[in-house]
Amino acid sequence: MKAKGFTLVEILIVVVILGILAAIVIPQFTEASTEAKTSSLVTDLQSVRSQIQLYKIEHLDAFPGTQGPDFVTALTSYTLQDGTLAAVQEPADGVYGPYLNKMPSNPFISDPAKANLVLEQAVDPGAPDNNTGWFFNTKTGEFKANDTYNQGAHWNL
Predict the structure, then answer these.
(1) In principle, which of 22, 127, 132, 141 could form an S-S bond with 119, CB 3.0–4.6 Å?
(2) Global pTM?
(3) What's the confidence (pLDDT) of residue 52?
(4) Would you say 133 and 78 are in contact if contact means Cβ atoms under 8 Å apart?
(5) CA distances from 81 to 99, 132, 156 (A)
């Protein structure tokens, strides 16, 4: 009686074919993930930059974080025209904001505790450092991603 089953050669051929298919498909998923992160980053940059401009218009040409509370607090709280925090936590005459519900996370920062932090300073550090998710120049109003992914390609998006 002849035994039923696959030979070792047949099994090896199937394993090699599956390996080739995996080698073709897996990099495509990795690329799609990076594209999704980049798209999310660009959207967040556009949103925050537009809210910075709105804040500046409503606060006597001052950037968030330059008077009163820090950058994130200024954008996520109710403020008065002079930039100080408002006593009321609801819309009222002379009360502005909040401009953001929360600070978005930079998808290229792996540490979630750092991904939504903002480095605020008047001098551009020149290069990203991955210690915070974002950089805000308090002098020029420039807002950008603070990550070293792809040798800083997202730094100037």
Answers:
(1) 132
(2) 0.81
(3) 97
(4) no
(5) 14, 28, 30
